Amino acid sequence: MKVLCLGGAGKICREAALDLIEFSKFEKITIGDFNEKAGREVMQWLNDPRVDFKKVNAKEKKETVTLMQGYDIVMDGTTISLNDLSTACIAEAGCHGINLNGFGDEYQYDQLFKDHGKTHVPGFGMTPGTTDMMVKYAADQMETVEIVRVSHGAFRPIAFSASITETTTYEYDPQLPGRVVYEDGKFIQVPPFARPRDIELPQPYGTHPQYIIPHAETKTAAQYLANKGVKLIEVRGTWPPKNMQLIKALYDWGFMRNDRVNVGNVDIGIMDAIGNYLMQAPEGQTTDLYGYSLHVEVIGTRGGKKVQHILTHTHPASDGSVKGWEKLRAYTRCVGIPMAIGTQILASGKVSTKGVIIPELAFDPSEVFKELEKRKIFIHEKINSVS
Fold first, then answer.
1. pLDDT for 19-60, tens place per residue?
2. 238 bridge partner residues
3. What domains are defined for the chain?
4. What are phi and psi of 268, to 5 degrees?
5. Mean pLDDT of 147-164
6. Quick one: which of 304, 328, 330 has its CA closest to 315?
7. Could you tell me how far CA 101 lies from the centroid of its own chain?
8. For residue 126, how many C-alpha atoms fall within 13 Å in the half-sphere facing its CB?
9. pLDDT tens, residue by residue, 242-282
10. pTM score > 0.90 for this model?
11. At a CB cut-off of 8 Å and minimum separation 6, what does 131 contact?
């Protein structure tokens, strides 16, 4: 079996590639990236005879499809803005596929994947991805589900890479139609910073206000739970407090609209300019606390009684006490490892459904949790009675 790690030079996808080396049986693992210098550095860092590098530009569709045809599966770590193009290439090449973001463009290629007898799973990192498994795990133990609240804290610098900078601008775009909640059978669009709720995350992260974000779990959970009577699905998130303080100020002052401004003789989007600044400034490259923290709440009935399932996750500390989890890697490994696990499950042939399918229909939570545990990522569950 051969896997192409598209966007493999990125800080998250390289961690997924490392996981494939440590845990998979792939015969060939190719780092595919437009940045040849970074890609070859990753190849040397991985230091494994199965690894090679190929320069790939997903915008050159014909060449990319031809390259992909030499692989069984594509592990797509590219940015949100490229996922439409990358998925089109994977579908046409006739490979299995999986990516991190899952923002919706992928589903238009469902029939093409079916025609090739292949499966594509959009949105399988930490969130979306692991959170989908947490929702499914709790919901499958219930006869009915009333409320689902997915929350996470992503403790990382605001602009440590171009893709993360893009994510920040995307998620807080005031006009974004995908920022929705599911309520009483309808998807309702909400503005940035809507529906604040204090969420208690496992230590060392603590309690933070979280706000509705445009993540795929809202729609995938609604699809998966359609027959369980679910009334409310909300997905929230937060970044380090300083990040949130900055984003709130930028939103309040209209910067998040990314209006065009003239600087000298150059027209530029104001948020594009700020993003470029943050990528070059020390304030954009560091944070006080690193890592990832999930909190999933599912309320429903079990054995005829109303219950609340709370699922959280923990991982090794970022303080250097555990090798390989230092600082930013405590964040990037949390995101990259689930995609690698999904890649390995897809390649094993365990997913029989063809086409573009939501994570809840692709994977077994118990299997995913066991694999995460092997990597020192643990899922914790608490069940409370609800009066």
1. 999 999 999 999 999 999 999 999 999 999 999 999 999 999
2. 153
3. 2-122 (3.40.50.720), 130-332+368-385 (3.30.360.10)
4. -150, 145
5. 92
6. 330
7. 5
8. 29
9. 999 999 999 999 999 999 999 888 899 999 899 999 999 99
10. yes
11. 150, 152, 217, 294, 296
Distance (Å, whole) CA 32 – CA 52: 9
Could you give the count of Cα atoms lying within 13 Å of 266 in the half-sphere of its Cβ? Answer: 6
**Length of the chain as a residue count:** 387
Extract the tokens encoding 66.
């031809």
Place of tokens 């992503």: 154
145-154, 254-263, 337-346: segment of lowest average pLDDT? 254-263
> What is the separation, in whole angstroms, between the first and last Cα of the chain?
52
Q: Which residue has the tokens 């809840």?
A: 360
